[in-house]
Amino acid sequence: MTRMPQVDKTHYAGAAYRSSDRWMSYFHQLELVEKIGAKHVLEVGVGSGVLARELVVRGVRVTTLDIAEDLQPDIVGSVTDIPCENVSFDTAVAFEVLEHMPFEESTQALRELARVSRTHVLVSLPHPGWVFSIIYKVPLLPRIHLLIQIPFFWKTHRFNGEHYWELGKKGYPIGRFLSAAKDAGLTLVSLEKHADDPAHRFFLFKK
Asked: Whole-prediction pTM value?
């Protein structure tokens, strides 16, 4: 099934993509890529272009893929049928992408991300809930983050024009997503959530 883009490129110039939470999300995306030392990355979902631009500055080769031609990706195509050879990239990343398709299609997307990557697959997903956080900083020492979240496990997600599903809501526990990743041949290395970006979960998988 060929899915049409949900928004045009002007969407990424809006206030939501200039918020401090969004920029912290970019920071954690970059951290994950740098953590595994990838030299050639497939980025699925061009978005605002910040991640690709910052990776290139750091000497990483980036190939972008998106179904939206107006975002001018390197490859126009779907994450559920990536038009690339097996193990074409060190790693494949899909940050805030998989929730934009029905869950069943996102499991196929995981298989495709695993197929084209050599070592790792990186994913982030929305994980809404009630959040209580404290960030404590002592000069010359790292920040201490304390985070407590109560996911909206009792809520049924309604398609809002963009997100078909979200982690933590009824029917979409984290365990279900991890099971889909395992079926795609991926092994969880780390699962991160940050007090400065509480709306997302970051997954690091290896093949």
From this structure: 0.90
